[in-house]
Amino acid sequence: MIVNHRGRARRRVLTAGAAALAMLLATACAGSESTDDGTSYLVGFPALTSGPAAFAGVPITEGAELAVKEINETGFLGEGATVELEIDDINNDPAQAISLYRQYIADGASAVLCCGLSSEAGALAPVIAESGTPGVVTSAVLPDLADPPHLVRPVIIPSEPGGLYDQFIDALVPAEEIGTAVLLVTADNDGMVADADVWEAALERNGVEVFKRINTQSADTNFTQAATEVQSLDPDVVVSSMLGTPSALLARGLRERGFEKPILANYGIDSAELFETSGAGLRNTIFFSPFHAELTENDTARRFVELYEEEYGSQPDMYGAQGYTAMWLVAEALKEAGSGEPEEVAAALSSITELETVYGPVIYEDGQARMDSQATYLRWSEDGTIVRWDG
């Protein structure tokens, strides 16, 4: 069952005594609910389904919902056992995510999907660490976020030494004959700042001169000044260590000013909605992704793509894959634990060392997913289709 509260948060008013009693009862019965039809495991999800991050948050929830449907319909957790996924919109507010997380605990959740953005992750992580109810990260790339048994992250982190950023730059610099670059950063996002340091080091290691590092803010919508400055510097390439919407708006500003050289970006721009936002400005933007619907080579991914298309009538993007992967990780832990008790689910999450995913086989080290295979290199074409970049 999926309970979806998109666009609104639950509002409950309890007296102090009633609230204490509710918490006591929830703690006593935490983890699962027995019904006439079997056992139901509650999983909470404070999600980004409105605001500037909805382009990512909505497909993440769709991927998670699809996983729940598959888990329940296939009887993965055993006869009569199902997952109930409760989704609430946090309205881009980390404080709301904390409030919802505490409510999920009171409701007896076995685990929580969380942490779509680094700001949300930074706020929630210490709260989760104080609780026995584990969190599974959907998309935040904040460094050193995984902290088993409290937080486990199935997201492939590109900024690790020798990781996807390094591989990407090592391949592109000689192929695209890159000698100079300008780097733009979402400066109020810790994850993007950390990524920018990795981008810059990789560029310089490959002999690229970084003319300038331009700081922007996550709420910026006007990139006229930044685009004009880039045009005047005239680098061989622009590197965007920015969130998805700012990257799209920057690309639009650059193309409107006649800058047609390549843009390098993270997989945050893997969204048809963002291509529209950019007014086709994302054309000739090159990025990498651990998953792409049309270029997948493993059975798990093929099944996911087929199910997603049947359910939603479109192909999944990287964000849909992240939600699907996070929810299936919770299901694996529920099955391993044989229980919905949060502490037992947390222990089961921490014990998982290998898993077959839409990215292919991944290993978990200290709660962080890693893959050995190289990501797929992609490029936005002028007509809004994504094609493989092969150098």
What does it look like?
With 391 residues, the protein is α/β, with parallel strands linked by helices. It folds into two domains: 2-156 and 298-358, Response regulator (Rossmann fold, 3-Layer(aba) Sandwich), CATH 3.40.50.2300; 164-289 and 375-388, 3-Layer(aba) Sandwich (Rossmann fold), CATH 3.40.50.2300. The protein is 41% helix and 21% strand. It has helices at residues 16-28, 54-74, 94-107, 118-129, 164-176, 190-205, 224-233, 244-256, 272-277, 299-312, 318-337, 342-351; strands at 2-5, 33-35, 38-47, 82-89, 111-114, 135-137, 151-152, 180-186, 209-216, 237-241, 263-265, 285-289, 354-357, 360-365, 368-370, 376-380, 386-388. Strands 1, 2, 3, 4, 5, 6 and 7 form a seven-stranded mixed sheet that branches. The chain has a seven-stranded mixed sheet with strand order 9-8-10-11-12-16-17, with helices on both faces. Strands 13-14-15 form a three-stranded antiparallel sheet, with no helix packed on it. The longest helix has 21 residues, at 54-74.
